[in-house]
Each structure stands twice: as structure tokens, then as C-alpha cells.
Amino acid sequence: MRRILTLTLAMLMLLSCFLCGCAQEKTETAAAETAADSIQADTVVARVNGTEILYGQVAQQMASVQSMYQSLTGTLSAEEIVEKLEAEAMNVVNKLIDDAILDQKIAESGLTLTKEEEAQAKRQWDAVLENVRASLRVNYPTMSEEDLDAMVILSMQNSSLSQEMVMNAARKSILTEKLRTVAAESMEPVSDAAIQTLYDTLLAEQKTKFDNDPTAFEAAMLGKTVVVYIPRNYRVLQELTVKSSDDVIGLLKQMAQYDNEESDSYEEMLQSEQAIRQSLIDTVRSRCAAGETFAEACRNAIPGVTLKTNYICGATTRFSEEYYNAAMNIPMEGGLADTLLPVDYGCTLLCWERSLGAGQIPLEQVRTVLSEQLNKDAESEHWKNLRQQWLEEAEITVYEELLSY
Predict the structure, then answer these.
(1) Are 44 and 160 in contact (CB under 8 A)?
(2) Are residues 144 and 203 in the same domain?
(3) What is the residue range of 152's domain?
(4) What would the pLDDT profile of 191-241 be if each residue is shown by its tens digit?
(5) Collapsed DSSP state (helix, strand, coil) of residue 361
(6) Are 134 and 207 within one domain?
(7) Considering its fold, how many domains does the chain have in total?
(8) Treating both helix axes as pointing N-terminal to C-terminal, what angle do 246-257 and 265-289 enclose, rounded to 10 degrees?
(9) How far apart are CA 118 and CA 4, in angstroms?
(10) For 182, how many CA atoms within 13 A lie in the half-sphere containing its CB?
(11) pLDDT at 302 exceeding the cut of 50
């Protein structure tokens, strides 16, 4: 469920990035559509099992596309533009048809939201507002909270997003995931033979690939690939990065623009921030020396901190010389690098958390994750086939003559 909600929120975040320009774009496209379109918004352009798809739904999604192609006049011929617009309009209708069928299947299933899931949908709207607020805060670091609240409201009024739109999208995502779960219950469990086959395939592929390219192994470990082969002895690193807050960074950037020889304010603030970071690093080192693990020391010294994991061996080439030397000169597992690595407005402390020995990882150590991957792939394929089956079974009528330009 989290995956679909994250995808929904990501798409809504992308839309919110254009908040400041949305009002002008909507005005311009509305004027263009008024002159060009004579079809009423409530005209039915398609029917799906009795559900009507209206021209207004299509026009809303086509507005930005139409504006884009109109700007290409002179690059594309009028005939080419018309052809592309009509093809895109049909794509929009097909997507609306798929969405309508999905809505029908959700309704038929009788699935509903729990109170917690409804609250989860509400949190998606809260997340949109917070995203807008964070963007404004970066651009206007000295603005008061009251003014920020007013700017958020104004930005949302000028955007194409609304609370109802965001929450409905979140609700549908939750219900869709529930429907997928119900559909997956009829599937057969993954067999041991399938797990063994996947393991053997991965082992053969990774031995060839990783032996020739250490970077490929490191990328696989950092990504979502199931790794069953380690080409060399590796150090597993944990990275603690301590930076100034976004508010302070914004203020420092502003101060840097007006820094001169007559004022030491900028330099003094930089030194103050550096002293704060050094104090936190010293606290982490002290806690580690007292017996805490690096992760425990970081969490206790800096509540809410997130550590990053990395992988390095003697043949690694993707790091800077400074990073490589700091990591490889740590004398023992659990030890910390003597050197702090500089980053913008902060620094990074490395810890050699543990080691990975070269060789094949036994099947039993990765059986669960291989089974999960096979199940996930099978469920995705089953869902795709089920959606196609619903589409083929549906009674669909499209009035293509209404989609001409």
C-alpha cells in the first residue's frame, strides 16, 4: 500500500512544483479552448459498462498538451499537429476507460476505507501543504510563519490541486491496493523449484558481471537487486552526515551575497555552525569509545538522524581519493575514520560497520527475499492480466468523431 501511496504523492508533488505558474497557464489555455472548441463539456465521448466519460474530462487533461503542440507551429505541419493531438486524445480516453473500469471493480468488491485509512488519505493532503511550505521556506528563509501560512494558501488557490482531488487520489490508491491483495489471494504460492532456478540464474549472471566490474556489485548492493555473489572482500560503511539546517543554509547564502571586509558576521556564523557540528561529532566518538555501536551513538547524540550505507574494497574506483583513504585507513571493524569528509555546509564521519567475505551467498540466506521477489513479480503479472481481462469483457463505446481537432 505504501508503494502506491508514494507513487500517488510523487505525482501530486510534481504538479505542485508548478504552483506559481498554474494560474497564468490555465487562463491562457482556457482562452485558447474557448476559441477552438465548440463541444460542450458534458458531451459524452465514451461509455464503459454504462459509465459515461465526458468531453470535459478529456479536455482538462488535453489542455497542456494542446498548448504545447500549438507552440510547435512552424516546427510541425498543421496536419502533424492534428495527428498527434488526436492520438493523444485517444490515449487520454483509453486511460479514463481503464480508470472507470477500476472504479467499477472497486465498487463491486464492496471494499471500503477504515478510519485509519481515511486519516491516511487526509495526511496526503497535509503532506502536499508541507511540501509547498518547505519550498517557500527555502526561497524565503526570513519569512514569518504567519506570512508562510498566507503564501501556502495563495499558492494552493492558484494551483490546479485541491484537497478533494488529493484525498480522492489517495483513497483510490488505498482501495486499489486492497483490490490487488484480494486478487492475489487466488494465486498459487511460489515453488521451491522456481526459487532454485532464480538463484542459479542470478549466481551465474552475477559471477560474470561482478568479477569484471566491482562497481556493478556496489550498485547492486545499494539498489534493490538481490545479491547472491560477492566478488571481493568488502567493507560495509556507515556514513553520518551532519549539516546545518535548511533555514540556516538559506540565511548563510543570503549573508554571503553581502559579505565584505567591514563585517565578520558571515564568517562568525560559519564558525559557529562548524563548532556545533564538531561538538556533535565529538559526542558520537565519545559514545563509541564508551561501548555504544556507531548507530546507537548517532541516534543518541542526534535524535532522528539517518545513516547512509556504502560499500568499498581495494578495487573500488567510484569514490574520491579523500573518501577512499578515509575509509580504507580505518584500522578495525567498528572503528571510525580519523578524517572528516567535507560536504556543503557540513561534514561526514565514516564507520567501518562490518565486513563481507568474497564468495557465493548460500541459498538459505536469500531464500526469503527471492521468494518475495518472485511473488511480487507474479502478483504484478496477475494484476496486469486481470486488468486486461476486465477491459476485454467491458462494453465500451467510443465516439471518436468527437475527438477530432
Answers:
(1) no
(2) no
(3) 2-186
(4) 999 999 999 999 999 999 999 998 999 999 999 899 999 999 999 999 999
(5) coil
(6) no
(7) 2
(8) 150
(9) 15
(10) 13
(11) yes
| Structural domain contains residue 282 | yes
Please tell me the distance from the alpha carbon of residue 333 to that of residue 328, in angstroms, as a whole number: 11
pTM: 0.67
d(CA 88, CA 62): 8
Cα dihedral sign, 350-353-355-361? negative
CA atoms within 13 Å, Cβ hemisphere of 257? 5
Query: Cell 538463484 sits at which residue?
Result: 199
The C-alpha cell that represents 191 in the structure block: 515453488
Q: Are 351 and 334 in contact (CB under 8 A)?
A: yes
* Each residue's pLDDT tens digit, 59-78: 988 988 888 888 888 888 88
Could you give the CA distance from residue 227 to residue 221 in angstroms, rounded to a whole number? Answer: 7
Number of other CB atoms surrounding residue 97 within 10 Å: 20
Size (the chain), residues: 405
Identity of the residue numbered 209? K
Query: Minimal CA–CA distance to 208: which of 196, 221, 217?
Result: 217
H/E element holding 355? strand 346-356
Q: Which residue has the cell 567493507?
A: 235
CA-CA distance, 177 to 97, in Å (whole number)? Answer: 19
Residue 131 contacts residue 13 (beta carbons within 8 Å): yes
Per DSSP, the residues of 200-265 read HHHHHHHHHHHHH-HHHHHHHHHTTPPP-EE-S-EEEEEEEEEE--HHHHHHHHHHHHT--TT--H
Do 322 and 345 belong together in one domain? yes
